[in-house]
Design goal:
10 helices; 15 strands; six-stranded mixed β-sheet; single chain
């Protein structure tokens, strides 16, 4: 979603306040400001403390450092109201003709009635920021809220324009991995359970990997081998992934997993744990489809059990076709969707 406006004057800091009245008569006031140096130094703690259960790695300090390394300017924002702070990372880019834009992705808002009230206040604060900063021409939001007809109508009423989402998990499959270890298998859809049991009978060597340079290079080569050897879509240079993975590993948030066959690493995954949520961010495998599918099921089952032990509640498998195209073989994510919906048939579409 994006909002444009004509901006009359330059400001070195942004402060805006907006009061919204809910249907129940409650009032929400939010002030938008830049975070202090102290708040930035404890960024992840602040995100977790003020948005429990809503944290996304896309708002993390590690993600910020990676984007800064590859050309983005960081803007650490705080939406502040009575008994509420919402920390938001904005990535800034400048153009010669239009000016600056902010890209805010993974904004942690609860997926309930309060989310819509907060969205109103946040959007109005953003509009105020646009009106105060003449070189800021657009703010693009990608929010982890479930798409509903009511929310799409709200987006229209707020004067926003729905645009294409950039992040791959705008449609995704979520798993609840918070139950007892004994009950985990029962939370998985039938096809997934069957494939996991087949993989177990093959006695695959599946384990967590040390985050060495060798692991990273092997992971990258396997990522280029997926899709029948055609490679992953829009794969970046190795230096990007190396920096990205290293940042999350250094925070204790990034984890490599792999499957060995005859002593050779043949399937890999990189998983980010951020707060009580985890994301299957990257994966790679050999192009032999007859073997690889079972390897992938065995690997994900190992990851699910490990995440359960780490106290993770929600596991985002990160990327499928939209629910309306989940059976469309022409969609570039069709194969991913087929695999991931074998764990949970429900596809979650987000705003």
């Amino acid at each position: 979603m994006s909002q444009t406006a004509t901006l009359p004057q330059v400001t070195t800091s942004i402060e805006s306040e907006q009061t919204q009245t809910s249907k129940r008569g409650e009032r929400i006031s939010l002030t938008l400001r830049f975070a202090t140096d102290d708040e930035i130094s404890h960024w992840d703690d602040n995100v977790h403390a003020n948005s429990p259960g809503c944290g996304s790695f896309l708002q993390s300090a590690a993600f910020a450092r990676t984007k800064e390394r590859f050309g983005w300017t960081l803007r650490y924002l705080v939406y502040e109201g009575k008994n509420r702070k919402l920390y938001a990372l904005a990535l800034e880019r400048s153009t010669l003709t239009l000016g600056r834009l902010w890209y805010i992705t993974g904004l942690p808002i609860r997926d309930d009635e309060m989310s819509e009230k907060l969205l109103r206040a946040i959007v109005t604060a953003n509009k105020k920021a646009l009106s105060l900063a003449p070189t800021l021409f657009m703010i693009k939001l990608e929010i982890l809220l479930t798409t509903t007809d009511a929310r799409l109508k709200l987006v229209k009423r707020l004067g926003l324009q729905k645009t294409s989402n950039i992040q791959s998990n705008s449609s995704t499959v979520m798993l609840d991995v918070s139950g007892s270890p004994e009950s985990l298998i029962d939370t998985i859809a039938y096809r997934g359970r069957r494939c996991i049991r087949v993989s177990q009978r093959r006695n695959l060597e599946t384990r967590k990997l040390e985050p060495t340079l060798e692991t990273q290079r092997t992971m990258y080569e396997l990522m280029k081998s997926v899709n029948g050897g055609k490679g992953a879509m829009m794969i970046r240079p190795f230096k990007y992934y190396q920096h990205f993975w290293t940042q999350f590993v250094s925070e204790g948030q990034g984890h490599f997993y792999g499957v060995y066959e005859d002593g050779r690493l043949v399937t890999t995954a990189f998983v980010i744990v951020y707060g009580d949520s985890a994301t299957y961010k990257d994966g790679g495998s050999t192009p032999r489809r007859d073997q690889t599918a079972m390897h992938a099921y065995g690997l994900q089952w190992h990851i699910i059990q490990d995440l359960n032990q780490l106290g993770v509640r929600h596991y985002d498998l990160c990327g499928t076709p939209p629910s309306s195209r989940i059976t469309d073989r022409s969609h570039p994510y069709y194969g991913l969707g087929l695999f991931k919906t074998s764990f949970n048939k429900q596809v979650l579409d987000r705003l």
